[in-house]
């Protein structure tokens, strides 16, 4: 059996949380991303804190956790709850203030040039950010740079060919990102928040897995699974093509050497 297949067959503590009930709840919350962002991001934040806690090899209590692309700041309370020292970096000031939340530990900066020293963080993660940057793997490399040896890097992102790849444009992205954006603009009278080619890009699972293999031996890929599916469907990430459509969201978990 190959090393890659052995990694996929591992059953970490997080698998016990990856149930059908959880998948149904999270997928349902996607309906509220635009109309009730506090509900949507609050649910994602709590789930992310659980995921990070389960995948990080050391206790999360007291760990320094960096959120790359922290946005409005909905994740802060979830990580405070588990005892982590939470820091966020966000390049867009309008996005930072979109939720009207108090930012206690947010730095304005680019994920592609993180304003932090080498090996300064215990955990570095990004949640649904990769598809919104034109240089996603440069950002991922920066995340790895600022992580301490033995620390954890988690990259979770929406797959373009999955049903949520077009974000608020729905399934029209299957007919082309630019065309979907034009149709959305005509229908709603304004461009989509996630504008293809500007703030939304087509990123695949194959690209992420290729990047994760390329950074060895600097880091070990310890997990690659579809975020919103129950654990008994994680095998789809081993099937090229199928994983791009059914996986919906890929999570890459790496341990820094």
Description:
The protein contains nine helices and seven strands. With 257 residues, it is an alpha/beta fold. A seven-stranded mixed β-sheet has the order 3-2-1-4-5-7-6, with helices on both faces. The protein is globular, with a radius of gyration of 17 Å.
Main sheet properties: 7 strands, mixed
Q: Mind telling me the C-alpha Rg?
A: 17 Å
Structure class: alpha/beta
Low-confidence stretches: 1-11
Number of helices: 9
Cα end-to-end separation: 23 Å
Oligomeric state of the chains in view: single chain
Number of strands: 7
Approximate shape: globular
Question: In what range is the share of β-strand residues?
Answer: 15-25%
State the CATH architecture of the largest domain: 3-Layer(aba) Sandwich
Q: In which range does the helix fraction lie? A: 25-40%
Total tally of structural domains: 2
Please write the string of helix (H) and strand (E) elements: HHHEHEHEEHEHHEHE
Q: Please, what is the CATH homologous superfamily of the largest domain?
A: Vaccinia Virus protein VP39
CATH fold-type name of the largest domain:
Rossmann fold
Mean pLDDT: 90
Can you tell me the CATH class of the largest domain?
Alpha Beta
Strand order of the largest sheet: 3-2-1-4-5-7-6
